[in-house]
Amino acid sequence: MEWKISKEPVEYPEALAFMDERVADIYEGRADECVWLLEHPALYTAGTSAKEDDLLDAGGLPVYETGRGGEYTYHGPGQRVAYVMVDLKKRQKGPDIKKYVWQLEEWIIQTLAEFGIKGERRCGRVGIWVVMPDGLESKIAAIGVRVRRWVTLHGIAINVAPDLSHFGGIVPCGISEHGVTSMQALGVDVGMEEVDRVLREKFGEVF
Predict the structure, then answer these.
(1) What span, in angstroms and rounded, lies between the C-alpha atoms of 91 and 120?
(2) CA-to-CA distance for 66 and 37, rounded, in angstroms?
(3) Which of 6, 42, 96, 123 is deepest in the core (most CB within 10 A)?
(4) Is 123 in the active site?
């Protein structure tokens, strides 16, 4: 397993090109599995289920169509994106995408728990959620996956300290009745290096 960490923001097309090539190489046995930790410049992405009306106001930010599942999401500085490229045939006795998504969720939940944040699953709502002090629920992490010949692409995005106002340009993941939050907004000020350390530790435990 290779862990790739980018210190500077990575343009979205560059990330897609890397994943496409790496997934093909993993399938053919030419390369190791890979987790890539990065940030993107401010941008929106549209998953395969994105509805045109859910793009409210891009505000001049680029919008990229992508092959992952899900709807619209925002990526930008202060958000830790983890692209996971693993071979499910090798990691599971019988390749199971639902189990893989559960593992991604568990990875996020266990990572957040290390910082005193209780992340939770919600039936019918993709991603990881937290109960706010007022009792309402907000999304703190997004999940979007694609599987090609049982090798995974895309992955997760945890809101560490992004500009949350950018989420106002879309209906995040098609869910309008709930908000979006971040670790920083919950009072947890932590650097990306510390988040990365915990992500690496918990990945080994979950997967």
Answers:
(1) 25
(2) 18
(3) 42
(4) no
| Residue count (the chain) | 207
The helix/strand/coil state of 129 is: strand
SS3 195: helix
C-alpha pair distances (Å), 148 with each of 27, 95, 98, 112 = 9, 12, 15, 29
Structure tokens at 172: 């995040």
Backbone φ and ψ for 66, nearest 5 degrees, come out as -140, 160
The DSSP letter of residue 9 is: -
Token pair 């409210």: residue: 56
Q: What is the largest CA-CA distance in the chain?
A: 51
Class of domain 2-206: alpha beta
Cα–chain-centroid distance for residue 42? 15
Phi then psi dihedrals of residue 70, to 5 deg: 100, -170
What tokens were used for 99?
Answer: 């189990």
pTM for the complete prediction? Answer: 0.95
CA distance 48 to 65: 8
Q: Rounded distance, CA 105 to CA 120, Å? A: 9
- Which of 173, 180, 183, 192 is catalytic? The answer is 173
**Segment-wise mean pLDDT, segments of 10 residues, the chain, 207 residues:** 97 97 98 98 93 93 90 96 97 91 98 98 94 94 95 97 96 78 97 98 96
Hey, what amino acid is at 44?
Y
